[in-house]
Amino acid sequence: MKHQTVVTVALLAIAVPLRSETPKATLVAGTDHTCPAQLPNGTNYEVHYRTLKARWNGREVYVVVNAYYKPGSGEFLYYSSIWSEEKYLHDSKEQAAWTCKPTGRHVVLLENAEWADFWALTIAPRIEVYHSTLRFSSIGEAWRYVSTHFDDCQLPSSRAKCYDEIPLYKDLGSEFFRPERLRFSAGPYFYDPLVSAKKVGNSWQLEVKGADEPNRALVFLDEKFKLVKITRFPAPK
Fold first, then answer.
1. Which of 32, 131, 227, 236 would you call most buried, defined as having the most Cβ atoms within 10 angstroms of its Cβ?
2. What is the pLDDT of residue 235?
């Protein structure tokens, strides 16, 4: 009877792995940075950056994490990129001294306790949005969560829980994102097409511009960041 009990316990331990047994990612010394930031409506928040070291899929990796945190109310958004040990150590030697600086043209919103960070790209024209309804009483609690969930919002990944991609090519066409003067040129052309983003009721509304003015369009998303429709502005007479 005693032997049967031991066997049963062993089988249960194999069949039901515990989350607490998952190794935690640890902070790489000297990589924890905080920068002050402000939303379009004037609300202050914090942008956090840090690098973690972890064991993932059987190998040692470095996890570079970007995060937004609103002190007081505690809303938190993060996303990460996972690097091999070799690539991270090689690239980190060439990095300049850390400074807080803008990370490119994008629109960050905090609406009804939900973060939404919109970017627009002209390469395979699309909108990318990182979003989250996570909330923590302190930034320390938020980082403890990330230490065991760092791959939930790993990018680039279509399976990331915090990420959605909205294609624009089908509705707007390549000519919308390329100047007429370069129609017969094979060279690449890049610019920032995102004009604005806002929440309207339970939905999201974004304005994008073409490479040539006055080409403009409105992109309508539902509350889950799924495309509803795209409407081009009428051409001026």
1. 131
2. 59
